[in-house]
Fold this protein.
Amino acid sequence: MDQIANMINMVKNAGRAGHEFVVVPHSKIKFSIAECLVKEGFLKSVTKKTKKGFPIIELGLIYSEDGTPKVTGADRISKSSCR
């Protein structure tokens, strides 16, 4: 499965559930994408941590004033079967 799409879906699902943050496995590309999402205002924070000896990324979610999450949907533009 695509790890980047999995991370975005985890953020979307955690927002729907009302979580304050979500934890994803660490990789350099996912960390860079998360930093860009923070810069653009879709995430509150991104932190690299270690849990039980494994590196993880903790993503802080941001909500609108009415309580809806900023990330509500994601569409895949490029698929390996439909380029």
Notes: The chain is about 35% helix and 25% strand. The chain has a mean pLDDT of 89. The longest strand covers residues 43-51.
